[in-house]
Amino acid sequence: MAEPIPMPTGLRPPHRLAQLGELSLPLDLLRFGLQWPRLVTAPRGDGRPVCLIPGYGGSELSMRPLEGFLKRINYNAADWSLGRNQGAVDRDVARFTAVAEERFAANGEQPLTLIGWSLGGLIARETARLTPHLVREVITMGTPIIGGPKYTTPGQRYARSANLQLDQLEREVHQRNSIGFDHPLTVLYTDRDGIVGPDIARDIYNPQARNIRVDGGHMGLGFNPKVWRIIADTLAGQA
């Protein structure tokens, strides 16, 4: 039996400079424009169902560009159909599970590949952990895996709005993470993240997790051609 993983210590929210770096999103988008050619040779998909889950405060619109790209390379991609992500993880896991069950049935009981941005990645992970038969694979982008919201820039605001104690939530998140799950798992993070620090966006709990560092800030992860190419290669088994 594997030794239990101790709760990580010495973690901190992103540095102030990283937070300010998120303001460079327009420049990142200009740089991304030079990288689009790498998507021309992205491998074609097999039509499997893929569901995209937005981050805290984001709606389906934030995932629309990635959804369009996945459709173009022959995946049955769709958003989570639940509107704006308001940060109620347990409630949204239950709501999204109902959506996943419907799509699982509609696709001939074919499990879903879940792609979650930031907090959306937590919903994807919990769905995989609690209802493993509904999920084929999980990909997260800048997700606060360790510690929940405690070490994120909007953590204090989130705690007040949800009436939560961050220390208690950190322990609960660690306990959930320690249970783990067996699905293929790709974890994308960036050292320039000003919302979710790189130390907490990596997976230390699941041995099959592939932690991949990418360039860019948190706010640009869903629009980053390098991220899209990694996702395409991952889905095609070429990563």
Radius of gyration (CA) equals 17 Å
Counting helices, strands and paired strands, the structural category is: alpha/beta
Number of domains: 1
Main β sheet profile: 6 strands, parallel
According to CATH, the fold-level topology is: Rossmann fold
- Uncertain stretches of 5 or more adjacent residues: none
What's the CATH architecture?
Answer: 3-Layer(aba) Sandwich
- The CATH superfamily label reads Alpha/Beta hydrolase fold, catalytic domain
Classify the beta-strand content into a percent band.
Answer: 5-15%
Explain the overall architecture.
The protein is of the alpha/beta class and 239 residues long. The protein has a single domain, classed as Rossmann fold (3-Layer(aba) Sandwich), CATH 3.40.50.1820. 36% of the residues lie in helices and 13% in strands. The chain has a six-stranded parallel β-sheet, sandwiched between helices. Strand 1, helix 3 (64-72) and strand 2 form a beta-alpha-beta unit.
Short structural summary:
With 239 residues, the chain is of the alpha/beta class. It has eight helices and six strands.
Topology:
Blueprint: H1 16-21, H2 25-33, E1 49-53, H3 64-72, E2 76-79, H4 89-106, E3 112-117, H5 119-130, E4 135-141, H6 155-162, H7 166-179, E5 185-189, E6 209-213, H8 225-235
Parallel strand pairs: 1-2, 1-3, 3-4, 4-5, 5-6
